[in-house]
Amino acid sequence: MKTFPTSAVWCLGILFISVSLITTGSSEVQVVGSANTVVALIGDDVILPCFLKPNVSAEDMTVEWTGLYLKTRNIHLYLDSRDSNEDQHPSYRGRTSMFNEELKNGNVSLKLTRVTLSDAGSYRCFIPTLKSQVKETTVQLFVGAVSQPVISIDGTKGWGVVLKCESGGWFPEPEMEWLDSSGTILPADGPPERHRDSEGLYAVRRHVTVNQTDINRFTCRVNQLEINHMKETEINVPDDVFPKSQTGLIVGLIAAVAVAVLAASAGVYKRRKHTDEVYKKAIKRLKEHTKDFKLAQEKWRDAKFVDINKGHLIQNVTTVIPKAFYLIRSETYCKIHAAASKDQMSLLYEALEEAGLYVKSDFYRILLDLETDLVTDLGASFVDDHKYRLIQMVTKVKPIMYELFYEKLYCNIRINQMYRQEQMRLLFEALEEAEDTTRVKSDFYRILLDLEPELVFNLGGFNTFKEHCKRLEEQCHAQFVTSHKDHLIKKVSKGKSIASELHQKDLIPDEINSQISAAGTSQEQMRLLYEALEEAEDTTRVKSAFYGILLHLEFSVVKDLGRFKTLGDAQYVTRHKDHLIQMVSKGKSIASELHKKNLIPDEMNSQISAAGTSQDQMRLLFKALEEAEDSTRVKSAFYGILLDLEPDVVYHLDGLKEQLKDVTRERDELKEKLRKAEETIQSLSTSPDGQQKTQTPSQKSEGTEGMEMESLPGRKSGPGSVRKSAPEMKPLLGPGPQKDELDELERGGRV
I want to staple 174 with a disulfide (CB 3.0 to 4.6 A). Which of 170, 319, 640, 656 is the partner? Predict the structure, then answer.
């Protein structure tokens, strides 16, 4: 393997610094790196160059090496004149070091040993203690892999010998070709066969049929232009391997039977030969078309996955630059590289839309290699979220059973005679019982994309609702931060730490973070931090992130302000008990989450797991909620988990709010009508000559009592009275919901 000598890197670095000093003539200390991409092979030791210009000592400075777009991915930290890697990312542990003896010369380069494929990407060299504008630089690392090709003899064909060349463990994908002893490229027996292993490395195989020559020396060459590496293997084929010539025997036989055989069968032979050739060509074309169709179908399925999950991938994919680097080699890549991290995936999707289906498929393959868990969890989550819809709507059940559970379900005669919905229920039971249920559910999702893509696409709109719920949650957090501004400015003491966390996530600029760090009091820090929150481009998202950090660093402050929310969540759970028992299907998962938080005991969690139906699970779970020592807190936690696992249930129940608002408004109108009716009744208390009586307060009281008595059925009004009785005023009030009906509606919706 080819690597760059350490001395060569130092020379290049010193030369780069010298030229820069001559060019700029500036005395300001700056951080400089390498403009060229550093290329390494798997298993190599590589140096990521970073220097101070001009050469000043960095022994007393802080040096941070992190991922460029995932700054929480700590790679190496030099702090207080020593390496401080307690929070180092696990994948880099024991593989990073700095040249401590060179720090006095301004050399802060990082040595990375035993490079792996996942190390590829952009690295950030950052010196926060440097008092200049240029405190950081970026180094791009490209990781490749090569291996030596192996040649073997794979039989004979006609008068020639078939040679096979194989080479695995390459990255990126290489090209393979055959050459003769003079260096001329030989026509191979078809295109190269390629596949990719579980580690993301490529293997390639290619056959060639060679005829006997004077030397019989042939070469297999594997070449990778992107990393500028080439491997060759030669073979000398012995003469006795080639088929022996039997020309004399054949000529003798032909001479003996030529007249009789050729005269009788020449026409038949030609016709049969022609028919065989046509048949073989047709079979070959059919196989090629079938292979092309399967490949196109797979590409289409991969691209569909990218389209359906666009919103989720934009929010959650972290390794954007490596994907763009492998897919797009133009000014578009530079545009994505220069964009803010929150905009990179959106720009990449624009490029994918312009490139078309095949590039989307390649994006999916790279995503599957770099972020396997994200892709697998997306497919499994889709299956879990849409379980009941899929049971009702999937029509091609038997092909799915054939692919996933051939012996268990497909070969079972009894299951094949069931209705489609029953088959789907058994299929879901098998998914849950699988050893690796997440992987099997992800495979089920991909098969659905093949067989019923329109169903998957239509149900994929549900993800929009989940994103909407997430956005609503962010809005709630932002509203909390806005509503309690004055209180938080007074009470929060760790404003500097919160600002640092937001800065690491690229949510507030460097200048504001520096101002907050320099502020004298915690109140002044919080005032500056609130100004940054209000000035942010997406203030809702930044405030929501602020709320999450505040919840982690100063939980007691949030707890004091949020105790009323906890009480409201608990009341919601109590009010909707009957509905939740009937509608929630993931009681076992909710109980497991509560058990992990030590909110329900082991015994109760075991009982819920052993319960047969979801209703029994929920009844036991509600029993545990009621028996908890702090029932309000446990119910609030239950509500939060429910909102995460089954948001559609909460959405359905919250739909009753609008009905309750209408009923409440109608009740207020009825009260107002009743008040006006009472005023009307009192105004009808007049004298016999039509003049209103002047009454003292005691007389008014007596008159009211008399009115109530006269309103009873069977009572007669006093002499001369012309007022109407209460039954006669009934049409003024009008029909409306009674108290029992209002109470029932209140129980059905959350106030």
Answer: 170
Task: Answer yes or no: are the C-beta atoms of 243 and 209 closer than 8 Å.
Answer: no
Tell which of 521, 553, 585 closes a domain: 553
pLDDT at 208 (0 to 100): 94
Contacts of 236 (CB under 8 A, 6+ apart): 215, 216, 217
What pLDDT is recorded for position 505?
86
pLDDT of residue 561: 67
Q: Domain of residue 545: give its range.
A: 464-553
Q: Is residue 334 part of a domain?
A: yes
Whole-prediction pTM: 0.34
Q: Which residues contact 401 (CB under 8 A, 6 or more apart)?
A: 409, 410, 415, 423, 427
What's the pLDDT score for residue 251? 53
7, 12, 15, 17 alpha-carbon torsion, rounded to 10°: -110
Is residue 167 a contact partner of residue 204, using CB atoms and an 8 Å limit? yes
**Number of other CB atoms surrounding residue 561 within 10 Å:** 16
355 burial via Cβ count (<10 Å: 0-12, 13-18, 19+) = middle
CB 303 within 8 A of CB 364: yes
Q: Hey, what are 98's tokens?
A: 């700095």
Contact 69, 138 (CB under 8 A): no
Q: List Cβ neighbours of 388 (8 Å cut-off, separation of 6 or more).
A: 585
Calculate the alpha carbon distances from 108 to 64, 84, 322 in Å: 10, 15, 24
Specify whether the CB–CB gap between 205 and 193 falls below 8 A.
Answer: yes
pLDDT at 49: 96
Residue 524 lies in a domain: yes
- Which residues of the chain have a pLDDT value below 50? 1-26, 248-249, 461-462, 464-465, 687-739, 741-742, 744-751
Tell whether 297 is covered by a domain: no
The answer to whether residues 208 and 156 touch, using CB atoms and an 8 Å cutoff, is no
Residues 6+ apart with CB under 8 A from 692: 683, 685, 686
Query: 377 with 305: CB under 8 angstroms?
Result: no
CATH number of the domain that 626 lies in? 1.10.533
Single out the residue of 152, 195, 153 nearest to residue 174, CA to CA: 195
**Domain match, 314 and 458 both:** yes
Q: How far apart are CA 640 and CA 615, in angstroms?
A: 20
Burial track 519-548 (b if 16+ CB lie within 10 A, e otherwise): beebeebbebbbebbeebeeebbbbbbbbe
Number of domains in the chain: 6
User: What DSSP designation does 35 have?
Assistant: S
Residue pair 650/575 in contact by the 8 Å Cβ criterion: no
Q: Is residue 720 part of a domain?
A: no
Beta strands at 30-32 and 51-53: parallel, antiparallel or unpaired: antiparallel
Give the residue from 198, 214, 241 where a domain finishes.
Answer: 241
**Residue 333 pLDDT:** 64
